[in-house]
Amino acid sequence: MSCEFERQLAAVQERLAGVVSSSDDVASAAPRALSGSAPNLVVADDGTPGAENTSDAKQLVEQALCCVLHELVVDAGEARAPFMEYAGREGGKKKKVKASSASLPRLLDLSLTLSEWGVCDHGVVFTVLEQLVECCTIADAQDVFTWIEGKRTRLNADVLWRRGKLIMLRTCNDLLRRLSKTNDATLRGRVLLLLSSLYALSERSALNLAGNYNRANVTTLDELEVGTNGAEQGGGGGKGKGKGDDDNEDEDAMETDDAAKTNAPVVDVRFYKTFWSLQTFFQNPNVALGVAGGWDAFYAAFQAVLDNFETHRLDASDETAATTAEESALGVKYLTAAPLLQLQLRDPAFRRSFLLQCAILLGHCEGPPALPKVKRDQVAKAKARVMAATAATPPNARGVEFAEFVAAALKREVYWVGWKKDNCKDFQRASEPRPPPKPPPPVMRKRPRLGTKQPAVPPEKRVKLGNPELDRLWNLSVDNASSLREKKAEETSMATFLQPVLDDMDPEAQIEEAYKQKNDKVFVWKALRMIAKENLSAFSKLGTDDMEAVVPGLLGVEPPGGGGEKSEPEPEPEPEPEPEPTGGGEEEEEEGKAEDAAKTESGEKGGKPRDGDGDGDGDGDAAAAVAKAVEALEAKVAADAAARSDEGNVDDASMEQEAEDLPE
């Protein structure tokens, strides 16, 4: 049985090694290589495992992947080549090539692809990564984590992460124990950022719920005694002064004078012990501040150090040194040797690190849980001094930016502590409904000038056909239906239209005769048409009278500049009966001809007019007679109109007399 398993393992391992060493795509080469390599191991072209695949086949693939990894790691170690750049064996020789064709990245891609397909267990890719990180040096681990960061989205898929999150956590914790906090601070940060991105925000495995502090970080001080002048002296175990004690005092006094001349901080034993004693409070705040007098001791030491910082401020000459120190000071732990403190206080990075510790401690004193023996008013003053000193630390632009960052971080820390106090409730919330789409912005149109005609079609709806004339014709109306309807302009009333005539008649207007409306032929023509529709009597008067004489009576208004009461509009006269002619044989003859022509036109009994023979050959003569009769009638009407205009209107009495004289 064992021989059969080893034989199948060797066959699958050989197939997988061939996929790793080839240059084909892993996703396309893996199904062809694995199908048929062992019983009950079938993989479709799209990566779907066959229904006949058993758990033994999955374990076989997992074991084969680990064996291929072991061979590549051994070969890379023998070749003294970086793991992620080693290309494996080709033709019995080992060679080092670029990372794009390296074997270990292809093996990791193959493990990830097979885990996603389900050909092997979904957590196999994390197992392969764990074994690889265990064999790697620190430099190779950086390359491995570069690959992990590139595949982070695929590794965080639910089907893979459920089986491999504990393996990944164990791998990262083992690597963090190997990394130095001083030399490998960058890689440690990358590992922590990777874990924070893979695990959910509400994951409680990485939270310090108990609030424990790092008590292993112990600060060791030099054993010094305070001399008569307060200067530093070596730890002599309490021995008395020797012969050269006076010389030492003179040298200490000279060093103090030199420090004062160079504006450097004066460091003595008292200040040395005061400065480094604050690390006790930073290491375990609750214990150090909870005892009687703990806060008073901290506040006194804090005030002394801040007074020294404010007295001996850093100038612009320290900016270059500050930039160089910050670039190389990643995760450092400063030495506590007494002779170094005076130089350290002139380092902006050192000051900024100390001020950051003070800001974190003061933020802890402000937030919950409140420490009973802490004075809140002193905490607020101390925090304000820390922020001011941080902003004043050169370079000034970076100091202000760093102070703002610290303030924002402390504000978020308050919410973080409250979240842990509430037993780390889940941050995932129900998705809010999508807001309704915003209405489109209003179309801004240009305000037309006064007096310009508005186009029938708005500019945004105009259609352009490529020809100016076609564009004009097409855009005469908004749609076809409106273009079929005739647009009637609003009719102007006669009083409004004739008002300019009244304005011209006003003497105060002082309008010259040549510029009056009655001399405008177009206006007169329009006025005649309008008056003819409204009042025929007034229209007949316009043939002889001036327009200014007729318009006031027509409109029923008083002529401008004239006296008298307002006159009523002249009514249209009723048709008058024609008076009996008193003489004139020509008029009687014309009336007789008109009556004969009417009889000839009407015919007998409504029939056609006939000649003397009755055969209807006189049609042309009858038409000529009718035309002559019409002309005679028109001449008579014109003569009557002229007679009335010369003689005046006939009064009612004369009309009644004439009516009585008419024969019955």
3D structure, described in words:
Residues 621-642 have a biased composition (Low complexity). Residues 246-257, 570-593, 648-664 have a biased composition (Acidic residues). InterPro entries: THO_THOC1 (IPR021861). Residues 433-443 have a biased composition (Pro residues). The protein is mainly alpha-helical. The chain has helices at residues 2-21, 26-34, 55-78, 103-117, 124-135, 138-150, 152-155, 158-178, 185-198, 245-261, 269-283, 285-290, 294-311, 319-328, 341-344, 348-366, 376-392, 396-421, 468-474, 480-484, 494-497, 499-505, 521-534, 536-541, 547-555, 585-602, 619-647, 652-661, and strands at residues 86-90, 93-96, 225-226, 232-233. The chain has a two-stranded antiparallel sheet with strand order 1-2. Strands 3-4 form a two-stranded antiparallel ribbon. Helix 3 (55-78) runs antiparallel to helix 4 (103-117).
